[in-house]
Amino acid sequence: MSMAKILNFIDGTYREGKGWFDKRNPCNNEVFAQVAEAGKTEVDAAVAAARRALRGPWGKMTVAERGAILHKVADGITRRFDEFLEAECRDTGKPKSLASHIDIPRGAANFKIFADLVKNVPTESFVLDTPDGAGAVNYALRRPKGVIGVICPWNLPLLLMTWKVGPALACGNTVVVKPSEETPSTAALLGEVMNEAGVPPGVYNVVHGFGPDSAGEFLTSNPDVNAVTFTGETRTGAAIMKAGAGFIRPVSLELGGKNPAIVFADADLDKAIEGTMRSAFANCGQVCLGTERVYVERPVFDEFVARLKTGAEALVIGTPDEPGANMGPLVSREHQAKVLSYYEKAQALGATIVTGGGIPMVPAALAEGAWVEPTIWTGLGDDSPIMREEIFGPCCHISPFDDEEEVIARANDTEYGLACAIWTENSSRANRVAARMETGLVWVNSWFLRDLRTPFGGSKRSGIGREGGVHSLEFYTELSNVCVKL
Fold first, then answer.
1. E strands, 90-226, where?
2. If we measure between CA atoms, which residue out of 58, 250, 293 comes closest to residue 149?
3. Minimal CB count within 10 Å: which of 60, 196, 387, 469?
């Protein structure tokens, strides 16, 4: 059987590139596809196609016409749900139970939500008095920003890509998408759906490859790209920001985190355990919003640790198709090595390993996969690298605290500021503590509950800008003021 090929999608057609790289299955490390790496020629062709499409039929459509097409895109993903599910799980190794509930349906929904939202966001207008008494009227218009470079992460590939592409296209822009080299499949497959839905050639383009001296660098250094949006690690975000500085190019960056959860003694522990289980271990811990630092008020500390240990040890590790599996492998052997290096570091620093800390037992056929155990530690100080550096694996450290002021200071003592979860049944405390958290998102008695109309993004080294609702439209459009003398 011939090896599957994953191609670039440029100007409405699939194309090869300057060469090929292997795509491996995270469950067993076997090569299952070859991916066409885009060179500078292919990236420049994609940007040029996107530029032409702005001046073509796409740029002349009404908001309602674009919205109708984007609804067809969402319906096309849903119609081919099983194909997208298979591609996403093959790339990431995540359980189908997770991807079928979150990745694919929410990836499709992003097109409908933003297509509808853009029709209902007003702009401002003012009447101005003038010396001659006749006056003037000012009103604002939103116009597309142009060609948007969309650089996506590997942890939620379709969902986080359409979270950017949906509003970008709804606002009338065109896009060049650079998916992670680890997860190229669903971005490429979406090209077929775009063609089926009647999206004009050049509106949606996909280029595969890596960062430096590859598709990522070629895209961010192209002067015809009008803005870049990126989700991923902080170091890469800094490089993207630097690349755009010479062009005075706007960037939207959602970067790393070292997110705290604060569990007060009056919390409903059933809710807190369930929420922390998901925030620490869902998607094998590969969630930018995930919890790696848990602070528990001392009267309930021992019970919380024991119950989270029980929950972690009940997780079923397995392949996407394995019945009942709710935790897959990490995305790659490379990432496995990074996470295991922190497991080793925690042990060397004298952490108490509550559970996990290594590689689980798996069948021999999966021995080369990127598996790690869900892991819980206690006993380390707040200055430990385990408490300060983003690990991005299925792990957390649990620390006791004694009072509100103390835990607020400790939770905020980080260079990151993406998300926080607060668990308490005292509504006054919940609102008081939430207002003092130095994060872009604060959840109270929940985690990962998202209203897509609300602002999403991080502070400090966790990012620049906000997405969601009108905030996405602000990034993907330019506001022009029209002054009419009466």
1. 125-128, 136-144, 147-151, 174-178, 204-206
2. 250
3. 60
- One of 27, 288, 395, 420 is an active-site residue; which one? 288
DSSP letter (8 states) at residue 440? S
Give the span between the Cα atoms of 309 and 332, in whole angstroms.
26
Do the Cβ atoms of 98 and 64 come closer than 8 Å? no
CA distance 3 to 15: 16
d(CA 75, CA 93): 25
259-451 — its CATH code?
Answer: 3.40.309.10
Sort strands 352-355 and 375-378 into parallel, antiparallel or unpaired: antiparallel
Query: 413: which residues sit within 8 A by CB, 6+ positions away?
Result: 382
Pick the catalytic residue from 42, 88, 181, 254: 254
Contact 314, 374 (CB under 8 A): no
Residue type, 400: P
Quote the CA–CA distance of 230 and 152 in Å, as a whole number.
6
Total residues found in the chain within this entry = 486
Please state whether beta strands 227-231 and 251-254 pair in parallel, antiparallel, or not at all (unpaired). Answer: parallel
Distance CA 221, CA 417 (A): 28
The per-residue b/e assignment along 9-40, b for 16 or more CB within 10 angstroms, e otherwise, is: bbbbebbebeebbebbbbbbbeeebbbbbbbb
Distance of CA 268 to the CA centre of its chain: 29
Q: Give, in degrees to the nearest 5, the angle at Cα 169 between 472 and 478.
A: 55
* Residue 216, helix vs strand vs coil: helix
- Tell me whether strands 13-15 and 8-10 are parallel, antiparallel or unpaired: antiparallel
Q: How far is 444 from 399, CA to CA, in rounded Å?
A: 19
Amino acid present at 156? L
The structural domains of the chain, with segments of one domain joined by +, span 4-255+462-485, 259-451
Tokens representing 188 are 């490429």
DSSP secondary structure, 280-309, as one string: HHGGGG--TT-EEEEEEEGGGHHHHHHHHH
Q: Is 288 a catalytic residue?
A: yes
**Topology of 4-255+462-485 in CATH?**
Aldehyde Dehydrogenase; Chain A, domain 1 (3.40.605)
Which phi and psi angles does 191 have, rounded to 5°?
-60, -40
Which pTM value belongs to this model?
A: 0.96
Compute mean pLDDT per 10 residues along the chain, 486 residues long, and list them.
90 98 98 98 98 97 97 98 98 96 97 95 94 97 97 97 98 98 98 98 98 97 97 94 93 96 98 98 97 98 98 98 96 98 98 98 97 98 98 98 98 98 98 98 97 95 94 95 97
Does residue 484 sit in helix, strand or coil?
strand
